[in-house]
Design a protein that fits this description.
Elements lengths: L16 E6 L9 E6 L2 H11 L4 E6 L5 H4 L9 E12 L5 E17 L9 E6 L10 H12 L7 H12 L5 H13 L6 H8 L3 H25 L12
Parallel strand pairs: 1-3
Antiparallel strand pairs: 1-6, 2-5, 3-4, 4-5, 5-6
Helix pairs in contact: 3-7, 4-5, 5-7
Protein backbone atom coordinates (compact mmCIF):
# COMPACT_ATOMS: atom_id res chain seq x y z
CA UNK A 1 0.00 0.00 0.00
CA UNK A 2 1.36 3.44 -0.78
CA UNK A 3 0.57 6.93 0.40
CA UNK A 4 1.84 9.57 -2.03
CA UNK A 5 1.15 12.41 0.37
CA UNK A 6 4.18 14.16 1.81
CA UNK A 7 4.12 14.76 5.54
CA UNK A 8 6.65 16.62 7.64
CA UNK A 9 7.81 14.40 10.50
CA UNK A 10 10.71 15.24 12.77
CA UNK A 11 13.29 12.52 13.37
CA UNK A 12 15.71 12.85 16.27
CA UNK A 13 18.84 10.90 15.37
CA UNK A 14 20.43 11.69 18.74
CA UNK A 15 18.57 8.78 20.37
CA UNK A 16 18.47 5.05 19.56
CA UNK A 17 15.55 3.62 17.59
CA UNK A 18 13.70 0.35 18.20
CA UNK A 19 14.42 -2.12 15.40
CA UNK A 20 11.85 -4.45 13.84
CA UNK A 21 13.52 -6.75 11.26
CA UNK A 22 11.69 -8.81 8.65
CA UNK A 23 12.83 -11.21 5.92
CA UNK A 24 12.65 -8.62 3.11
CA UNK A 25 12.17 -4.91 2.56
CA UNK A 26 8.75 -4.06 3.99
CA UNK A 27 8.71 -0.26 4.12
CA UNK A 28 9.98 2.67 2.07
CA UNK A 29 9.46 6.42 2.49
CA UNK A 30 5.96 7.53 1.45
CA UNK A 31 4.62 3.97 1.90
CA UNK A 32 2.04 2.76 4.41
CA UNK A 33 2.55 -0.61 6.08
CA UNK A 34 -0.08 -2.42 8.20
CA UNK A 35 1.40 -4.71 10.85
CA UNK A 36 -0.03 -7.20 13.33
CA UNK A 37 2.19 -7.26 16.44
CA UNK A 38 1.93 -10.42 18.53
CA UNK A 39 5.41 -11.33 19.84
CA UNK A 40 6.04 -10.30 23.45
CA UNK A 41 9.18 -8.31 22.64
CA UNK A 42 7.53 -6.35 19.86
CA UNK A 43 4.37 -5.75 21.88
CA UNK A 44 6.64 -4.12 24.46
CA UNK A 45 8.34 -2.19 21.67
CA UNK A 46 5.03 -0.75 20.46
CA UNK A 47 4.05 0.18 24.04
CA UNK A 48 7.33 2.05 24.50
CA UNK A 49 7.08 3.74 21.11
CA UNK A 50 3.51 4.90 21.65
CA UNK A 51 4.59 6.53 24.92
CA UNK A 52 7.39 8.45 23.20
CA UNK A 53 8.21 9.39 19.60
CA UNK A 54 6.07 6.83 17.75
CA UNK A 55 8.89 5.76 15.40
CA UNK A 56 10.25 2.30 14.49
CA UNK A 57 13.19 1.34 12.27
CA UNK A 58 12.07 -1.38 9.85
CA UNK A 59 15.09 -3.53 9.04
CA UNK A 60 15.92 -6.52 6.83
CA UNK A 61 17.60 -9.73 7.99
CA UNK A 62 21.01 -10.42 6.45
CA UNK A 63 21.40 -13.93 5.11
CA UNK A 64 19.55 -16.97 6.47
CA UNK A 65 20.58 -16.82 10.13
CA UNK A 66 17.09 -15.67 11.11
CA UNK A 67 15.69 -19.02 9.95
CA UNK A 68 17.36 -20.88 12.83
CA UNK A 69 18.21 -18.09 15.28
CA UNK A 70 15.09 -15.92 15.11
CA UNK A 71 14.46 -15.77 18.87
CA UNK A 72 17.79 -14.05 19.48
CA UNK A 73 19.20 -11.20 17.41
CA UNK A 74 20.15 -12.50 13.95
CA UNK A 75 22.22 -10.19 11.76
CA UNK A 76 20.48 -7.39 9.89
CA UNK A 77 21.37 -5.33 6.83
CA UNK A 78 22.68 -1.81 7.57
CA UNK A 79 19.96 0.13 5.71
CA UNK A 80 16.58 0.67 7.39
CA UNK A 81 13.44 2.73 6.86
CA UNK A 82 12.16 4.76 9.78
CA UNK A 83 8.38 4.54 10.08
CA UNK A 84 5.94 6.65 12.08
CA UNK A 85 2.96 4.96 13.74
CA UNK A 86 -0.08 6.81 12.42
CA UNK A 87 -2.78 4.43 13.67
CA UNK A 88 -2.88 1.77 16.36
CA UNK A 89 -5.33 -0.57 18.03
CA UNK A 90 -4.56 -2.52 21.19
CA UNK A 91 -6.57 -5.73 21.28
CA UNK A 92 -7.92 -7.50 24.37
CA UNK A 93 -5.21 -10.18 24.17
CA UNK A 94 -2.43 -7.57 24.25
CA UNK A 95 -1.61 -7.74 20.56
CA UNK A 96 -1.56 -4.65 18.37
CA UNK A 97 -2.63 -3.63 14.93
CA UNK A 98 -0.60 -0.65 13.78
CA UNK A 99 -0.14 1.41 10.64
CA UNK A 100 3.35 2.67 9.81
CA UNK A 101 4.05 5.57 7.47
CA UNK A 102 7.54 5.49 5.91
CA UNK A 103 9.48 8.64 6.79
CA UNK A 104 13.12 8.33 5.69
CA UNK A 105 16.07 6.05 4.98
CA UNK A 106 18.77 5.56 7.59
CA UNK A 107 21.87 3.48 8.24
CA UNK A 108 22.69 1.44 11.36
CA UNK A 109 25.81 2.80 13.05
CA UNK A 110 25.63 0.76 16.25
CA UNK A 111 23.32 -1.88 17.72
CA UNK A 112 22.10 -2.10 21.30
CA UNK A 113 21.27 -5.65 22.38
CA UNK A 114 18.09 -6.45 24.34
CA UNK A 115 18.41 -5.84 28.10
CA UNK A 116 16.30 -5.95 31.27
CA UNK A 117 14.28 -2.90 30.21
CA UNK A 118 14.09 -3.60 26.47
CA UNK A 119 13.17 -7.05 25.16
CA UNK A 120 13.89 -5.85 21.61
CA UNK A 121 17.07 -4.58 20.00
CA UNK A 122 17.70 -0.92 19.29
CA UNK A 123 20.10 0.89 16.99
CA UNK A 124 21.88 4.20 16.65
CA UNK A 125 21.11 5.52 13.17
CA UNK A 126 22.18 8.25 10.80
CA UNK A 127 20.29 9.56 7.76
CA UNK A 128 21.52 8.45 4.33
CA UNK A 129 19.32 10.49 1.99
CA UNK A 130 20.69 13.55 0.25
CA UNK A 131 18.75 16.79 0.56
CA UNK A 132 18.20 17.34 -3.16
CA UNK A 133 16.22 20.17 -4.73
CA UNK A 134 13.52 18.89 -7.08
CA UNK A 135 14.71 21.24 -9.83
CA UNK A 136 17.92 19.21 -10.14
CA UNK A 137 15.89 16.05 -10.76
CA UNK A 138 13.72 17.30 -13.64
CA UNK A 139 15.51 15.16 -16.24
CA UNK A 140 15.47 12.14 -13.92
CA UNK A 141 11.72 12.52 -13.50
CA UNK A 142 11.13 12.84 -17.25
CA UNK A 143 13.25 9.81 -18.17
CA UNK A 144 11.60 7.47 -15.65
CA UNK A 145 8.09 8.55 -16.61
CA UNK A 146 8.88 8.04 -20.31
CA UNK A 147 9.78 4.44 -19.51
CA UNK A 148 6.60 4.00 -17.51
CA UNK A 149 4.42 5.39 -20.32
CA UNK A 150 5.96 3.23 -23.05
CA UNK A 151 4.26 0.05 -24.24
CA UNK A 152 3.98 -2.73 -23.26
CA UNK A 153 4.87 -1.51 -19.76
CA UNK A 154 2.14 1.15 -19.80
CA UNK A 155 -0.48 -1.58 -20.20
CA UNK A 156 0.40 -3.34 -16.93
CA UNK A 157 -1.78 -2.89 -13.87
CA UNK A 158 1.03 -1.47 -11.76
CA UNK A 159 1.98 1.18 -14.31
CA UNK A 160 -1.66 2.16 -14.82
CA UNK A 161 -2.19 2.63 -11.07
CA UNK A 162 0.96 4.70 -10.69
CA UNK A 163 0.15 6.91 -13.68
CA UNK A 164 -3.40 7.38 -12.40
CA UNK A 165 -2.06 8.46 -9.01
CA UNK A 166 0.29 10.92 -10.71
CA UNK A 167 -2.59 12.38 -12.70
CA UNK A 168 -4.28 13.14 -9.38
CA UNK A 169 -1.09 14.51 -7.81
CA UNK A 170 1.03 16.16 -10.54
CA UNK A 171 2.77 18.23 -7.85
CA UNK A 172 4.47 15.24 -6.24
CA UNK A 173 8.23 15.75 -5.80
CA UNK A 174 10.48 13.47 -7.82
CA UNK A 175 11.72 11.36 -4.85
CA UNK A 176 8.10 10.58 -3.95
CA UNK A 177 7.37 9.59 -7.56
CA UNK A 178 10.34 7.21 -7.51
CA UNK A 179 9.03 5.58 -4.31
CA UNK A 180 5.58 5.27 -5.89
CA UNK A 181 7.02 3.50 -8.94
CA UNK A 182 9.15 1.28 -6.71
CA UNK A 183 6.14 0.21 -4.67
CA UNK A 184 3.67 -0.04 -7.54
CA UNK A 185 5.78 -1.55 -10.33
CA UNK A 186 9.16 -2.78 -9.05
CA UNK A 187 8.07 -4.45 -5.79
CA UNK A 188 5.60 -6.93 -7.37
CA UNK A 189 8.28 -8.30 -9.73
CA UNK A 190 11.29 -8.13 -7.40
CA UNK A 191 12.71 -11.04 -5.41
CA UNK A 192 14.27 -8.78 -2.80
CA UNK A 193 17.67 -7.63 -4.07
CA UNK A 194 16.46 -4.64 -6.08
CA UNK A 195 14.22 -3.37 -3.30
CA UNK A 196 17.10 -3.44 -0.85
CA UNK A 197 19.37 -1.63 -3.31
CA UNK A 198 16.70 1.07 -3.56
CA UNK A 199 16.37 1.20 0.23
CA UNK A 200 20.11 1.65 0.85
CA UNK A 201 20.64 4.23 -1.94
CA UNK A 202 20.40 7.78 -0.62
CA UNK A 203 20.77 9.53 -3.98
CA UNK A 204 17.48 9.93 -5.86
CA UNK A 205 19.24 10.07 -9.25
CA UNK A 206 20.96 6.75 -8.53
CA UNK A 207 17.63 5.23 -7.45
CA UNK A 208 16.16 6.39 -10.75
CA UNK A 209 18.93 4.57 -12.64
CA UNK A 210 18.21 1.36 -10.73
CA UNK A 211 14.49 1.73 -11.45
CA UNK A 212 15.07 2.36 -15.17
CA UNK A 213 17.33 -0.69 -15.39
CA UNK A 214 14.64 -2.80 -13.71
CA UNK A 215 11.91 -1.43 -15.96
CA UNK A 216 13.97 -2.16 -19.07
CA UNK A 217 14.32 -5.79 -17.97
CA UNK A 218 10.58 -5.96 -17.29
CA UNK A 219 9.83 -4.43 -20.70
CA UNK A 220 12.00 -7.09 -22.34
CA UNK A 221 10.06 -9.89 -20.63
CA UNK A 222 6.74 -8.29 -21.55
CA UNK A 223 7.89 -7.94 -25.15
CA UNK A 224 8.74 -11.64 -25.29
CA UNK A 225 5.31 -12.48 -23.90
CA UNK A 226 3.64 -10.35 -26.58
CA UNK A 227 5.68 -12.08 -29.30
CA UNK A 228 4.50 -15.48 -28.06
CA UNK A 229 0.84 -14.52 -28.04
CA UNK A 230 -1.15 -15.86 -30.98
CA UNK A 231 -4.79 -14.68 -31.05
CA UNK A 232 -5.66 -17.57 -33.39
CA UNK A 233 -4.16 -20.28 -31.17
CA UNK A 234 -6.43 -22.54 -29.08
CA UNK A 235 -7.14 -21.20 -25.59
CA UNK A 236 -4.31 -21.94 -23.17
CA UNK A 237 -1.68 -22.42 -25.89
CA UNK A 238 1.28 -20.12 -26.60
CA UNK A 239 4.41 -20.49 -28.71
CA UNK A 240 7.69 -21.37 -26.94
Amino acid sequence: MSDPSVQTVRVNFARPFPVFPLARVSLLPHAVLPLFIFEKRYRQMVEHVLDTHGQIAMAVFRGDEYRYNYENSPAIQPAVCIGQITQHERREDGTYRIMLHGVCRARVMDELAPDDEHLYRRAVLRPIEKDEQDESLVRVRRDVLEHLKSKPLADTGGAKRVLSALDERPDLPTPAILELITLGVVAPIDEGDTLYRLLEEGDAAQRARIIKQTLRGYEHLLGKAVEQYDPDAPKGVSWN
